[in-house]
Amino acid sequence: MAILHIHNKSPGTSTSLNTCLRLAKRDSGILLIEDAVYAALAGNKTAPNIAGRMSELSFYLLINDATARGLIDNKLMPEFSRIDYHGFVQICTEYDRTVSWL
C-alpha cells in the first residue's frame, strides 16, 4: 500500500521527517508543505537522509510555500517534484492513503 506522507514542520524544530524517512515503505511519497519546505534546501542537515531514500520514495515540494518563504528554486534539491495546489490535490488521489505528520 503506497502512502503519501505529508510534513509541515521545519527539520530544525522537528524530527518527524527523519523518522518518516527511516520508516516509510518503498513506493511511498513524501510531500513537504509549510515550514517543512526548508528540508528541500540543498545542503541542509536532512539532505543525506533524503538522498539515501531517493531511489525508493517519491519527493514533492509545495512550491507555493517555498516561494512564500523566499526560497529560491535553484537552491532547492532538484530531486523534488515541484507542485502547486492543484498538484497537491492530484497526488493525494494517486496514493492509497495520506498521513499527516505532526
Describe it.
By secondary structure, the protein is of the alpha/beta class. It is 28% helix and 22% strand. The protein is globular and about 35 Å long. It starts with a strand and ends with a strand.
Our measurement of the CA-to-CA distance between the termini, rounded to an integer number of angstroms, reads 21 Å
Task: Estimate what percentage of residues fall within beta strands.
Answer: 15-25%
* Side-by-side strand order of the widest sheet: 4-3-2-1-5
Averaged pLDDT: 95
Residue runs with pLDDT of under 50 for 5 or more positions: none
Helix content: 25-40%
> What does the radius of gyration come to?
12 Å
Overall strand count:
5
Helix/strand order:
EHEHEHEHE
- Helices, by number, come to 4
> Describe the biggest sheet?
5 strands, parallel
- Overall geometric form: globular
Specify the structural class: alpha/beta
In short:
This protein is α/β, with parallel strands linked by helices. Helix content is 28%, strand content 22%.
Strand-helix topology:
Blueprint: E1 3-7, H1 16-23, E2 29-32, H2 47-51, E3 58-62, H3 63-68, E4 81-83, H4 85-94, E5 97-101
Parallel strand pairs: 1-2, 1-5, 2-3, 3-4
Give descriptors for this structure.
globular, 4 helices, alpha/beta, 28% helix, 5-stranded parallel beta sheet, 102 residues
